[in-house]
Structures are given as C-alpha cells and as structure tokens.
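TA notes, week 10

Several of you asked for a full example with nothing omitted. So below is the full record: structure tokens for the whole chain, then the designed sequence directly under it. When grading your own attempts, check the secondary structure regions first.
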C-alpha cells in the first residue's frame, strides 16, 4: 500500500486527485497507476484503470486472475466492473469513499448475484494516511479557489 500511496502522490503532483494503485502477482509489482483524468483528458483514467491497463500490457493478457490490486481509495462502479472483467483475485483498499465507493460505502458491487466472478476484498490498510492525503488535497484546492 505504501507504493500505492507513492502513486497517489504522483497524481497530486500533476494536480490530480491523489489516488494510486499497484498490481501485484507472485510477490512482484507488475503494474501501477495513479489518477490521470485531467492530464490524459480521459474520464476513465482512474488509478485502478491505469494500473489494470499497465498490468494487462505487462502480462500480455486482459485476464489477471492472480493479481492483487492495492488502491488508496475505495473504487467506483466503473473500476469495480473492470476488476470483474479482468478477473482480479483480490482488492485491497485503504480508505472508504463515502460518496461513490462501490465496494462498501454506496453499494456492495462484488456481492451482486449476477456476477460470474468474485473478488476477495480487504480494507483499511493505511486508511488514515490515504484519507489524510485526500483531505489535505481538497483543503488546499478549496483554499486556492477561495471556497471555505
């Protein structure tokens, strides 16, 4: 998760919301990503999507059944859907996303009966650090824009 937090810091350095993701298989990092929506002009460039793309490229396969994805923030529905399609084995996320989190906060997407794959979930690893990074980012953004 520390490597995912480093990815989140990269996102922040680009002016992006600081979310990072790392894909691990066999104890080895095989993919990484951070939010790139603004930089890439791409609404799908969430950290998870970028990490899944880089992992698929590295593995030369769109199926990633041996992968554990570490993410600093609870994924949205789009990213959860991509994990299902990729057959990700495990998701480990740090902080919950109360507004759009699709794993625990707003829905329990992975528990949907119609899905043909199950993703194991762990949460809370370095949650305070991840949440602190996000809070500081949005506090600074509000301060810069003159919004209290």
């Amino acid at each position: 998760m520390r490597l995912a937090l480093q990815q989140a810091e990269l996102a922040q350095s680009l002016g992006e919301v600081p979310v990072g993701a790392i894909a691990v298989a066999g104890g080895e990092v095989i993919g990484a990503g951070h939010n790139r929506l603004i930089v890439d002009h791409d609404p799908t460039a969430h950290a998870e999507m970028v990490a899944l793309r880089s992992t698929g490229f590295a593995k030369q396969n769109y199926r990633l059944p041996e992968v554990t994805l570490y993410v600093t923030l609870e994924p949205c529905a789009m990213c959860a859907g991509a994990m299902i399609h990729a057959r990700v084995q495990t998701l480990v996320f740090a902080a919950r996303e109360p507004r759009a989190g699709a794993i625990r906060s707003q829905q329990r997407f992975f528990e949907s009966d119609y899905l043909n794959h199950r993703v194991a979930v762990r949460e809370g690893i370095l949650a305070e650090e991840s949440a602190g990074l996000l809070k500081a980012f949005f506090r600074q953004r509000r301060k810069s824009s003159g919004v209290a």
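The chain has a mean pLDDT of 96. Use that as a sanity check on your answer.
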